[in-house]
Amino acid sequence: MQPLIRRALSTAARAAPAHAHAHAPATAPRIVQVAIDGPAASGKSSCASAVAARLHFAYVDSGAFFRCITLKALRRGPDPPDWRSFVADSRLAIAPVALDPNTGRVDPPRISLDGEDVTAAIRDPIVTAAVARLAALPAVRDALLDKKRALAGGIDGSLPVAGGYRGVVMDGRDIGSVVFPNASVKVFLTADPLVRAKRRLDELTAAAAQNPAAPAPPLPTLDQLAADIRARDESDMRRSVSPLVCPDGAIRLDSTALSRDDVIARIVAAVHHRHPDLLDARRSDTHPDLPEPPTVCS
Question: I need a surface site. Which of 42, 45, 149, 256 has the fewest CB within 10 A?
Fold first, then answer.
């Protein structure tokens, strides 16, 4: 009888989980967090939004949030007495990004502040000139840190993301080092300052050409932009709170000699390398065969 009893107990044990755990809650998979950091004009936002669109992830442009707070402060006039409350009371939102199936391009996401579309306003040169000062204020950074984490699954990806996204891509200057230190994919995107200045000048020139009737100040020279970028780099790296660094374990990508599409493809390939379950074999734009760039930041 003993062998029969053992076999019966074994059979019951195999069948038990279907009943014993029928009411156990399913554990939701953690949100895949992709952190893209880098200096000014390195192409973080344009590449990050395209990566998000290709992966069908949510996208958060953290730099746009700092610009929103800067714009709101400039409109207000004198600095508010309590920056934390000022930021906490601000309603910030970024519309989802989508990949155009015909061109493969992504339109810049629309940014709203307190219900107003400020996508263009936050790129005004006056805002650009003032944003570094506000970004260095500990109270502003702390208050925005809470908002950024809340939008992107929490510090460890255990919270759901609005829209039901499986993952989120966020770019900035301290995303992999402070906002999401445990992000599964971290990228530090950089380029030669003169190349970054040329890209920024091209953007400004294209923007002016799209709206020639609008009054606008003269475009800066390439040398002026390069000097501004170097000064911003110095400011970002030397600030006492959340300085610009290449986060531990980050993939360092120098885009000086790379096209935007090359950078996007390499980041998407890195995500697929870390999360092969996300790979969609039906799509040809993911470039899963590209080698993952070496991890050099430590």
Answer: 256
Spatial contact of 198 and 222, defined as CB atoms under 8 Å apart: yes
Highest-pLDDT range among 103-112, 258-267, 279-288: 258-267
The confidence score (pLDDT) of residue 98 equals 72
The helix (run of H) or strand (run of E) holding residue 236 is: helix 222-238
Q: What are 134-173's pLDDT values in tens digits? A: 988 999 999 999 999 998 999 999 999 888 899 999 999 9
Strand pairing of 167-172 and 58-61?
Answer: parallel
| Cα separation values, 242 from 58, 178, 188, 296, Å | 24, 7, 15, 20
184: Cα within 13 Å, side-chain hemisphere: 19
**Which single residue is written with the structure tokens 């260095």?**
136
Handedness of CA 237, 231, 205, 117 (dihedral sign): positive
Helix (H) or strand (E) holding 49: helix 44-55
Considering the entire predicted model, what is its pTM? Answer: 0.81
What's the gap between Cα 67 and its chain centre? 15
DSSP of 106-152, one letter per residue? BPPPPEEETTEE-TTGGGSHHHHHHHHHHHT-HHHHHHHHHHHHHHT
Burial (CB count <10 Å: 0-12, 13-18, 19+), residue 205: exposed
pLDDT at position 89 is 94
Segment 169-214, tens digit of pLDDT: 999 999 999 999 999 999 999 999 999 999 999 988 987 888 777 7
The residue behind tokens 């991890």 is 295
Distance CA 147, CA 35 (A): 16
State the Cα–Cα distance between residues 66 and 86, nearest whole angstrom: 12
Which strand ranges, in their side-by-side order, compose the sheet holding 111-113?
A: 92-94, 111-113, 116-117
Q: How many CB atoms lie within 10 A of CB 176?
A: 29
Strands 167-172 vs 32-37: parallel, antiparallel or unpaired: parallel
